[in-house]
Structures are given as C-alpha cells and as structure tokens.
Amino acid sequence: MSSTLFPVTAKEQLAQFGLDAAHFRQATRDRTGGREWHGPCPYCGGKDRFIVSNGQYFCRQCRKGGSLARLANKSFVLTAEEQAEIAKRIVKEEAQAKLLYKKNIARLNDGKLWEIYHKELLKHPKELQLLENDGIPMRIVEKFRLGYHPAFRFKEDDVLRIEPALTFPFFQKGICINIRCRILADDIEGAGKYRPILPGLGIAFLMAAVPNQNFCIHVEGEKKALNLYRHGFTAAGLWGVWTWKDKWAEWFRRRYWHNIVIFDGDNEGVVRAAKAWAELLGGTTIFLGDKIDDLLNRSGLTDEQLTYLVDNVRRDPW
To answer: Which CATH superfamily is domain 113-196 in?
Structure first.
C-alpha cells in the first residue's frame, strides 16, 4: 500500500487499510497536515482506543502498532497469550484510573481549587473585561464561579509551557468533578486552548439551567452555554462536537421535553455530529452557519429571533 494516501484527511480513506471507517471519529490535526482519528481496534475490538496519526497506528489497549501503509496486509488476529495479556492489562489500568480519579477529585474539593481561582479572577480586571466582551458579565462569573489560573502548566508539542488561563468548574451534586482551563495565549487556537486542569477526571458538561424551562439547547463550549443562559435559555455546554457520553442522553431526556443541538458552523463533520447527538437525545438540530455566541453578541441575533427558531423545532407534548 502506497504512502501517497498520507495525510489522512477523510475517514473514508481508512477503509483502504481494512479499518471500520464508519466508526472512526476525527480528533485533532496531526503533524502531516491531516487528521488524527480514533476508532475501534481491528485486533482486539477496543472501542475508541485505536489511533491513526502521522502515518502510524497504535492501540492503547492491545498495544498493536506500526506503519499505516503496511496495515492493509495484516491479519487482525490475536494469539491466546496476547488476549490473556490484554485482559490483565485492562484490569490493572482500570484500577490505576480509579485511583487517579479519586486522588484528583480530592485535590479539587479538599482545597476548593475553583474558589481559589475565582478569587484570583476578581483581582484581574483585564480578564473580567475579556469575559464581559464575550457576553459573560459579572453576575454569571459569580454564579458559575469562573476563575483565573495565573500559571497553568501544560504540554504543547511535547514542550512544557506555563500560561495564564481562565477556569470553568464543573459540578455534580455539589461536588466539583473537573475544571477546564481556557489558555490565554495568542499562538494557541481552536480546541487546543481548552485543557482539563488535572488528568484522569474525564469529560463533563456545564449545565446552565433556567428554572421552569422545559427545553435545553446543546452547544460546544462553556462560553456559549453561559451566553445562552444570560439571554434566558437553558443550555448545556459540551467540550466539543464528539465529546458526549451516550449515557448522558437519558439524563437529558428525563428532564427536558425537548433537546435542541446547535453546534458551530455547518460543515459535514459538524452536521454529522450534531445529528448523532440529537438522535440520542430524541431531539432536533438547528444550523446557523456561525458560533451562537458571536451571533448573539456581535451579529445582531436577537432573543426574539432565537426564540422563534427554537419554537419552530420544539416538540412539546401539548
């Protein structure tokens, strides 16, 4: 198989290597100018553990890996010894993940890290004005305990960096389950601006609920959810277009008569993701061609116009 298929820019290309392309999802841009893809492993079947990136493949579960160009001629069969080794590794990794989760949940809550960062934000008028410009006034900052981390440590292309960041805490039943940092560095763009403050805590969503409202709008990112809340709409801010857990759908269906998905833009990947999440929710989609917070804050979309769009797709039981 020729390496001229690199970079992999469309998941349909993965089928040429014997992979189940339909169940792969796009993650981040890789260093070849293509994309990094996550999906089921053809060897062990591990869901979302198999990575294609930079012309290579690797499974984080069974540890199979190598050149993507040679994958098409591989026999996807594991020996009995390999299967036993995978089973042992899974048990060990699950135990380690649970230990890390408990440790970092304790770190978040014992010291009330979100409150430390919130108090720090109140000392920084420049960052408060930045949030205000993005449609998040002080009353929202206070209610949702947004904060400021003066020296957030993270890796970018394997290089350790320290940058200031805004912090968005996530709570569940009064417990902080994660804090996501929005890095305030001009050279970092897109999804790379957002990083969890500690490893091993898993993805979450920010819930901004308006009392007695029977529908919920699902968007990408905390800022959009908070903007919608400010305009009088209940909203859930996901981390990105493919960052939900299927089990969340049942939670939303029990609480809201209708769920409406409004993701950024209208390209093929966004449309596919929005429709997939809406199907799980038993809801519908709206495609606006731009970011909902930019439309509300800078392009003149009024509350009345958004209400009209929402009312046209709602399926209330009466």
So the answer is: DNA primase, catalytic core, N-terminal domain (3.90.980.10)
